[in-house]
Amino acid sequence: xxxxxxxxxxxxxxxxxxxxxxxxxxxxxxxxxxxxxxxxxxxxxxxxxxxxxxxxxxxxxxxxxxxxxxxxxxxxxxxxxxxxxxxxxxxxxxxxxxxxxxxxxxxxxxxxxxxxxxxxxxxxxxxxxxxxxxxxxxxxxxxxxxxxxxxxxxxxxxxxxxxxxxxxxxxxxxxxxxxxxxxxxxxxxxxxxxxxxxxxxxxxxxxxxxxxxxxxxxxxxxxxxxxxxxxxxxxxxxxxxxxxxxxxxxxxxxxxxxxxxxxxxxxxxxxxxxxxxxxxxxxxxxxxxxxxxxxxxxxxxxxxxxxxxxxxxxxxxxxxxxxxxxxxxxxxxxxxxxxxxx
Amino acid sequence: xxxxxxxxxxxxxxxxxxxxxxxxxxxxxxxxxxxxxxxxxxxxxxxxxxxxxxxxxxxxxxxxxxxxxxxxxxxxxxxxxxxxxxxxxxxxxxxxxxxxxxxxxxxxxxxxxxxxxxxxxxxxxxxxxxxxxxxxxxxxxxxxxxxxxxxxxxxxxxxxxxxxxxxxxxxxxxxxxxxxxxxxxxxxxxxxxxxxxxxxxxxxxxxxxxxxxxxxxxxxxxxxxxxxxxxxxxxxxxxxxxxxxxxxxxxxxxxxxxxxxxxxxxxxxxxxxxxxxxxxxxxxxxxxxxxxxxxxxxxxxxxxxxxxxxxxxxxxxxxxxxxxxxxxxxxxxxxxxxxxxxxxx
Lengths: 342, 345
What we know:
The structure holds two protein chains of two kinds.
Chain A: H1 3-13, H2 20-42, H3 49-57, H4 60-74, H5 82-97, H6 114-138, H7 143-161, E1 166-167, H8 177-180, E2 182-183, E3 188-189, H9 190-208, H10 210-220, H11 222-227, H12 232-258, E4 261-262, H13 269-279, H14 291-310, H15 317-340
Antiparallel strand pairs in A: 1-4, 2-3
Helix pairs in contact in A: 2-14, 2-15, 4-9, 4-10, 4-12, 4-13, 4-14, 5-6, 5-7, 5-12, 6-7, 6-12, 9-10, 13-14, 14-15
Chain B: H1 15-41, H2 58-83, H3 91-107, H4 112-136, H5 141-159, H6 181-184, H7 193-211, H8 213-223, H9 225-230, H10 235-261, H11 272-282, H12 294-312, H13 320-343
Helix pairs in contact in B: 1-12, 1-13, 2-7, 2-8, 2-10, 2-11, 2-12, 3-4, 3-5, 3-10, 4-5, 4-10, 7-8, 7-10, 8-10, 11-12, 11-13
């Protein structure tokens, strides 16, 4: 079929056809539901409300990181630094709020009040985000390289501050509050509520604001976007700051939940965030994908891993299952899109 | 300055451009000399690793080269793949899986050469699988090799039975005596076989890059894939071949690492993909493809190994990630600055 007839057909069908994006999101969602039902048959006690809730609540950190990563991917950029930022901001929050006169080097902090420690930790996270933006936007170095470098840099700082292990002593009582606070009658933790709010805001920005739509435009065709007078550099800078701020908050909440700043926290989270975005139909080349899709992508991964645990497979299986899940998801999406737009 | 018309025939060789060319071609050797010199001056007698606190003595150099064998083996093939514009994030997992396969074969009584050959073939198979995903199924290289990173790692972990961390002597089974001589025992110049294999692999790849069509086609594919295809190059075949070469190199690296540590550790290659990228970038290879030299990556690998091993003697181990991250960013930035200088004017 020639291009013009294809375009003609697309135009003709625009009114009653849903967009490719909604189509893929629907596909991903049905795969997630289907997998859940399938797992319910295989695994005893899988089909329970509590288990459904756990699939979401146990993954609040990765889903939150996925929001920033999704926006960046849509704009055509990677962010692999989020796992490192999670470690860095958590360690910074602990270091800043540990009281000044501790027994050993690892129990001595700067003795800031907690609110100041949180601001400081966020500042550290934003600094890494700014570094990402500087290298990607100003120096035009491929984002995958830059964010791998800043991932190592952020984790490196966390390791130096904690001397390669963790800081968990001499903390004020208020430190453990945020991450363990429960709402709605002690059933849902605050971080999960924040994740839901973040998702709602992200979907709103994505669908209903100029900023959100420009992100797609930049990702779909950066040159056209620039020629139409869009300040791409500034836009991508904001996205990197946005993503690093989310990662910073996740790090602070995790540190608060465990009352410790651990330099290896968030290891491989950057890859998980990337994987759930890809599972959710976000195109690695940019310009395509959605936050809702990413959310269902996270559910697919959660169902696969928790079903594996339920079947008492050795934990080593999770790597292979993850690989197969991504492989099948990518192939299905490519195939379904190609078939649909034939 | 030359006139406008002659720029077609010959790029204007202004002083800035000449300096940039010179920098791109030779800076890596200066960096190596600088790192070695710096570490030789620093106070190194904290550890027994270096006798008499001198970085530049025979024993410490042999030690570093021995530890470097896996990375040196991998650097060349990884460079060629990146020159063609592709990437393999699964090299670390390929390495781990090969190490486990090799150790499993050895501990079950397979002789050295047979175990060696079977592991290499396995590595070629793993590489071909990557190539298949990328070229035939048209999955983006980053995603495809992220999938196999997870897959190969899972396979390596499953090959090691539950409750044991690695394939090693114990439980009625014993590693054969020859197992660690490949990676440890001194041969020529007191360096082990593994190191000489790394040198041989690099030599072959240098020749392949400079004297054969493979090198030219790889650069053409990376420089402009469409143009390469239109001029009749079977880019798909070239790319699969390059993935196979990377797979074999990763298997050799796995054998070297496994032999050096005397065990088949399913996590031994973790993070190797990052180090490989770091080394190749340090060698001035353009991430977007089309440009890069095997030999410069080899030198880049030497720098990284000298830096990591040497650094252990000066600062605590937990500074390593920070320094490597900084080196990665600095290498990326300097690549950018040099190539901008080259294309400017």
